């Protein structure tokens, strides 16, 4: 299913299973990696997917992003095609294990500096990594990032999610489960449920992915059918499904001020983009560029690909070696390519 998701890519690419050693547990861990345009000497982009997903969801962005620079998309350790080691049981240890897995991958790949691009949970991990290893990061790019705001008193009411998903969260979250538990419970009939509940995501891959409803629903099922060690690790990090135990708004001030930060939100997402104001306040004097992409939800990178790609490519120009000024943008509405600088 992964190859079917990637069938529309024009740029030559290759897969590798990068052995990062026993970063988590006693056995070697491997990171499933997709690479494009590796001969370019430009700073590479490294793409980290969101929770319960995999690298193939970036498929429609890859050609544009890899036009003039290397691009690597990885399956986060514990998810999709990467190894499924048993993570620790405290959120501090789990954060450290995820961070060290990314750093070990970078060292094996012999990448000096890179530009991390993280969606949702991937954005959370990219931020943690950038705080811990600032000299390896040229520019931090976050797409509708999870884990920034503090948990409200009534968490499910604060989520802008479909009613059916709210019901699932109310059932599973009190037992420290995520909705993906249900995918494994129902087994092979699960893709049928995904086709019904995730038309909002599937429609973004039409017509580029042939038979997108079947291909994407089966791909999501395959990403989550194996032993859910990454999912269990995520449970250690979350305080209810939509919030982190230790929100990043409490820690974003620790990010090196020389690292430029670009954040891209969908205006209709369940992620609260009001976090941007707190991020700006906590990074006073640093480069922060925030974009609200109109009429897009959580998967902003697929819902308006031309605008998302152009924002990312522009951010690649604004590296910390080229920025000699402060720029604070609370809102940059991006409804078309012409709206961007």
Summarize the structure.
The chain is α/β, with parallel strands linked by helices.
Can you describe what's shown?
- With about 350 residues, the chain is of the alpha/beta class.
- The protein contains 14 helices and nine strands.
β-strand amount: 5-15%
Based on CA atoms alone, the radius of gyration comes out at 19 Å
User: The biggest beta sheet, please?
Assistant: 9 strands, mixed
Category from helices, strands and their pairing: alpha/beta
Note the main attributes of this structure.
single chain; alpha/beta; 9-stranded mixed β-sheet; 14% strand
Helix and strand layout, with pairings?
Elements (H helix, E strand, L loop, with lengths): L1 H4 L7 E9 L7 E8 L8 E4 L13 H4 L5 E4 L16 H19 L5 E5 L1 H12 L7 E4 L11 H4 L4 H10 L7 H7 L3 H8 L1 H4 L9 H14 L3 H9 L23 E6 L8 H8 L5 E6 L6 H4 L1 H13 L10 E2 L12
Parallel strand pairs: 3-4, 3-5, 5-6, 6-7, 7-8, 8-9
Antiparallel strand pairs: 1-2, 2-4
